[in-house]
């Protein structure tokens, strides 16, 4: 039998989650399946709905956010794993060299997919993220499914993690006792269907930096059956072009792979060059060779690998065309911290 707890504060929730067999309950769109399976059914569900710290979407800096949630700014930086964020191709400095928009977005773990899709700051700063959340399932799912749930649930076919990976997102995690650690999304899924969350830990938010001015984002979910079906293969690309030269690019593949993946060394082949059709094709081929795909009822692994070749090429070409037409500030022209 499963019992419910309804905490009204983060410390209360963390204490309840410390009990063996307890699980966080967010939108319950995935948990509903676990409850029907005696082998996966939690003994206690800890509702996150009464926790104001986990709600909402904030445009701002990590420092501003840390004032709102458990933990201090010092804990924030100490617990960050330390990998550069944004643009695996090149260094963080290169990526942000065009002047970042400053701040970024912090998506509360209990923000619903519908709220992310409709939020003015998300649509203005990271429209590709709004679009990805808007395409999940149907309006009933988007009305309750949450940012924390779509990451912690670790469903390999799910869309938002792929886009968040291409955006260099970080996951903010509250630990039992109230300390906080921040994990880059590319370290969040150590193996298929699992996360780095330890027993009793809770995702409180996801942070996404605002990309440099002129960065464009594209997400292409390839669905083999109806539009309501989950994605067979998802390709996300962020790219910035300055004077015809690629100044930063990041590709992420998901839904058809055991966990969302990207390869910084392949992405780097685009940077510092004027990408043409041949280079785009070479990068798509390199991804098709490097990626390990899932074999399931939707498609074989071999078919998916071919689709990686096709959709990386098409998504890159579309992003390149859009980036080339998007004014990108040069480092000299844009003061650091200017909104883009
Ligand atoms: C009909 C249907 C169609 C769908 N179509 C799509 C689709 O097209 N694309 C797509 O990407 N996805 C799709 N999904 C999957 C959907 O995205 C997930 O079910 C949903 O995002 C899970 O979020 P939730 O808030 O409901 O999580 P819950 O079901 O509440 O929780 C899921 C898991 O995460 C844990 N958890 C939740 N929140 C936290 C937290 N803050 N910290 C730590 N652990 C937490 C829970 O304990 C549980 O183990 C579909 C689902 C349904 C039911």
From TrEMBL:
GO molecular function: FAD binding; oxidoreductase activity
InterPro entries in the cross-refs: CO_DH_flav_C, CO_DH_flav_C_dom_sf, Diverse_Substr_Oxidored, FAD-bd_PCMH, FAD-bd_PCMH-like_sf, FAD-bd_PCMH_sub2, Mopterin_DH_FAD-bd
One protein family per Pfam: FAD_binding_5
Coiled-coil zones: none
Record domain FAD-binding PCMH-type: where: 1-213
E.C. number: 1.2.99.2
Oxidoreductase is among the record's keywords: yes
PROSITE patterns xrefs: FAD_PCMH
Main enzyme class: oxidoreductase
Keyword terms of this UniProt record: FAD, Flavoprotein, Oxidoreductase
Protein's name in the database: Carbon monoxide dehydrogenase putative signal peptide
Species this protein is from: Frankia alni (strain DSM 45986 / CECT 9034 / ACN14a)
């Amino acid at each position: 039998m499963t019992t419910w707890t309804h905490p009204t504060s983060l410390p209360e929730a963390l204490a309840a989650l410390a009990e063996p067999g307890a699980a966080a309950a967010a939108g319950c769109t995935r948990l509903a399946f676990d409850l029907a399976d005696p082998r996966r059914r939690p003994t206690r569900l800890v509702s996150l709905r009464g926790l104001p710290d986990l709600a909402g979407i904030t445009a701002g800096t990590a420092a501003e956010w840390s004032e709102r949630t458990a933990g201090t700014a010092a804990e924030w930086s100490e617990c960050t794993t330390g990998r550069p964020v944004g643009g695996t191709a090149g260094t963080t400095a290169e990526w942000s060299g065009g002047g970042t928009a400053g701040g970024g977005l912090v998506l509360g773990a209990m923000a619903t997919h519908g709220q992310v899709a409709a939020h003015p700051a998300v649509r203005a700063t990271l429209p590709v993220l709004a679009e990805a959340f808007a395409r999940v399932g149907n309006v009933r799912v988007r009305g309750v499914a949450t940012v924390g749930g779509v990451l912690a649930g670790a469903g390999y076919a799910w869309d938002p993690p792929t886009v968040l990976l291409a955006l260099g997102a970080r996951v903010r995690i509250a630990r039992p006792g109230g300390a906080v650690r921040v994990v880059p999304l590319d370290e969040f899924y150590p193996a298929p269907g699992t996360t780095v969350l330890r027993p009793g830990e809770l995702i409180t938010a996801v942070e996404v930096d605002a990309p440099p001015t002129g960065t464009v984002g594209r997400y292409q979910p390839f669905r083999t059956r109806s539009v309501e079906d989950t994605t067979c293969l998802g390709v996300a690309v962020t790219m910035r072009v300055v004077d015809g030269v690629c100044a930063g690019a990041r590709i992420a593949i998901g839904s058809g792979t055991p966990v969302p993946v990207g390869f910084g060394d392949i992405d780097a082949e685009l940077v510092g060059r004027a990408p043409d059709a041949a280079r785009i094709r070479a990068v798509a081929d390199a991804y098709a060779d490097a990626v390990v795909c899932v074999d399931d009822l939707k498609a074989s692994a071999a078919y998916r690998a071919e689709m990686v070749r096709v959709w990386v090429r098409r998504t890159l070409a579309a992003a390149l065309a859009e980036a080339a037409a998007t004014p990108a500030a040069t480092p000299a022209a844009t003061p650091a911290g200017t909104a883009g």
